[in-house]
Amino acid sequence: MPIYEYQCTKCGESFEVRQSMGADGSSLNCPKCKAKNPKRLISSFSSIGSESFGSSGYGGSTCSTGNCSTGTCGLPMM
Ligand SMILES: [Zn+2]
Asked: How much distance in Å is there from the Cα of 76 to the middle of ligand 1?
């Protein structure tokens, strides 16, 4: 079962969730502040642009997680 990384849109906390393929994060809560609907961070191996990010204006130009070595920040790996 794949592990997805989410980021809280309220406090910025990032956390990993193991869930089945195709599941969304609508039922998840931030482990820190309990806010709903965390944003899923794009992983390097999954399809890009499969989901609409709505009006959040996701740019993907900066690493907001500090986990660049894992390739989960949205930036391409060198
Ligand atoms: Zn939070």
From this structure: 26
Judge whether residue 61 has pLDDT over 60. no
State the distance from the centre of ligand 1 to the C-alpha of 63, rounded, in angstroms.
Answer: 18
Task: Enumerate the domain spans of the chain.
Answer: 1-47
What's the CA gap between 74 and 71, in Å, rounded?
7
Q: What is the third-level CATH fold of 1-47? A: Rubrerythrin, domain 2 (2.20.28)
* CB of 41 closer than 8 Å to CB of 74: yes
**From the CA of 61, how far away is ligand 1's center (Å)?**
22
Residue 51 Cα to ligand 1 midpoint, Å, equals 22
pLDDT in tens, 5-51: 999 999 999 999 988 877 888 889 999 999 999 999 876 554 445 45
